[in-house]
Amino acid sequence: MKKTIIFSAAIITGGLLVALGPIFLFKACSANCCLTLPDCFWATKMTLGIGMMITALGIFYILYNDPKIQLGISLAIFLSGIMVLLTIHVIIGGCAIKSMECRLVTFPILTVLGIFITVFSGVKILLLKKAK
Question: What SS3 state is found at 94?
């Protein structure tokens, strides 16, 4: 049970940072920086949704003790972590200018968080499969 709570707390924290970090902590470019809304604006909106989903999955992980359900939740968290990385690097991206805030601060932090969530949930998947 203790390992479940530690895993869930790490995932919930990571999910909240992915969701709310670009809005409050490590802000991306503002909507006022360009004539139109920059790509990083839309990327952070998408990471808000993905981060809230990761947070909800972390809460569900605590609520369900069945290893098969936890394995499914871990797989969903793993894919959500990959989705964070794809959103900021492939699907939407950020500003074309390399010196913008999104490229210097926001996206590197989101990349680290996405890798952390993906690797952490991947290890949990392997541990759940081994325990089976």
Answer: coil
